[in-house]
Amino acid sequence: MKKNIPIIDHIGLNEEGLISAEKMFSSRNIEKLPPHITTALVLFDPRPSQEILDKSKELYKFVTASSILSQYVYDDKIVVAYAPLGGPATGGLIEELLAFGIKKILACGSSGLIGDFPKENFLIVTKAIRDEGLSYHYLEPSLYVETDQNQNRLIEAALKRHHLNCDQGITWTTDAFYRETKSRMGLRKEQGAIAVEMECASIAAVCKYRNVPFSQVLYFSDIVKQEGWSNFLDTRASIKEKINKIMTEIAIHL
Question: Using CA atoms, how far apart are residues 106 and 109, in angstroms rounded to an integer?
């Protein structure tokens, strides 16, 4: 293995970062969450629904270079977090949620369908193909990073109690949605990928490094095939509203 390629360089993996969310919070006297709030549900929305807002109070604002996203304590039971697009920024959000005292992470978001899987069904991710960058700063190079099997089983059972069709499977996490080429997609399908998205492997790597269980549920907002892109499906807004509400309930009882 070549040692002059940064993304596969092992140097520093066993060291803590010079900057950490824990140190930043401590220097700013930011208090941790009360001990009964241990679960965070991460959603990929620009703003919360009114139904969430009506039962929430703001925890803090997550600040990135190009956006400021409010994060909420919902019903004094869980954190409902709103993530920016992409693995690096979302990974930073996860680090800050863990610094607040979160012990379990669930995520729910949209993806592109690339495999043979019903587009109306939900995918519980078992592992993510690491075709992004952030995960290599947390874990040694590998094709996949796994999610938490025990937590996945609980979520699958809960989704089925809500009469939702779902199954477990693999996603392909990529940083480059304009570089989802035919040959690269073909390879990822051979490696088992059903979905493609931009955050799962990054979140999973942060959580695995920090020894925190993580699960992700995906719904399909579009279809990506060798012949081309479907554009966004008309059903994506209604599906998002439905699954976000159900995942909030699941996170509360997890």
Answer: 10
